[in-house]
Design brief:
Blueprint lengths: L2 E3 L4 E5 L6 H12 L2 E4 H14 L7 H5 L7 E3 L8 E3 L2 E2 L7 H4 L2 H5 L2 H20 L4 E5 L2 H5 L5 E6 L2 H11 L8 H15 L10 E4 L5 H14 L3 E3 L1
Parallel strand pairs: 2-7, 2-8, 3-7, 8-9
Antiparallel strand pairs: 1-10, 4-5, 5-6
Helix pairs in contact: 1-10, 8-9
Length: 232
């Protein structure tokens, strides 16, 4: 017996970097037959493009003068998530340390958030209008992007565990020592704090001592209990 997604189901998964939300969100979407939206990838894609253009990210006016130029395309297939800028696949480049250490500066600009939140809402609305549900993950899904989501989850983990996970992702970068990753993580947490509040009705799950399967099982069980999906 499988799961049958109810029309228009929206599951919001938020949390800081290294909490495991991206992988968990994809796995939840696959388990429940939903689409998947990585909102953080959109901010990363814009940041990558601005850096490629040589724009000083500290110059807000310069950033705002160009943010409407790049065409950011994002796929919603959880098995093969895709992100492209002006037709160029940037799935790899947007995950490097240069982008990771710069994206918070761009994401903090209100006009940037307004632009991308509007796009994210369009994607969610277009998906749910077809009767298909979606798992959206980021930092403000449950509070801003989809405040009416049927299920809201906020994933957390200890600073040490989050740094270990990020360091493992950057294993090929010799400069990404644990100490460096922890410093960068602390700076990013501070910059992202204004956009990272947990929704009042979200369930907080500490993933520090949990396996990925355990996290996914908890979120899937929540979807069942909230009648977001039913067992077919």
């Amino acid at each position: 017996m499988g799961e049958v997604t109810r029309p228009g189901a929206v599951i919001a998964i938020d949390g800081p970097a290294g909490s495991g939300k991206s992988t968990a969100a994809r796995r939840v979407a696959i388990a429940l037959g939903l689409r998947y939206l990585d909102t953080g990838a959109m901010y990363r894609a814009l940041t990558w493009w601005l850096l490629e253009q040589g724009i000083d990210l500290a110059d807000t006016a310069a950033v705002l003068a160009r943010i409407a130029e790049p065409r950011i395309e994002i796929g919603t297939d959880p098995r093969q998530p895709r992100i492209a800028v002006n037709g160029t696949d940037v799935a790899g480049p947007i995950r490097d340390r240069r982008v990771s250490n710069s994206v918070s500066t761009v994401a903090a600009i209100p006009e940037v958030r307004a632009l991308l939140v509007a796009r994210q809402r369009e994607i969610i609305a277009a998906t749910t209008a077809t009767g298909t549900g979606i798992v959206a993950e980021g930092r403000d899904i449950g509070t801003v992007v989809a405040p009416d989501a049927a299920v809201k989850v906020y994933l957390t983990a200890s600073e040490e565990v989050r740094a270990q996970r990020r360091s493992a992702e950057l294993d090929a970068d010799p400069a990404a020592t644990m100490a460096a990753v922890r410093r960068e993580q602390a700076r990013r947490d501070e910059r992202d704090a204004p956009q990272s509040a947990m929704a009042a009705d979200a369930v907080d799950i500490d993933t520090s001592a949990l396996t990925l399967d355990e996290v996914v099982d908890q979120v899937v069980a929540m979807a069942w209990s909230r009648r977001t999906v039913s067992r077919g």
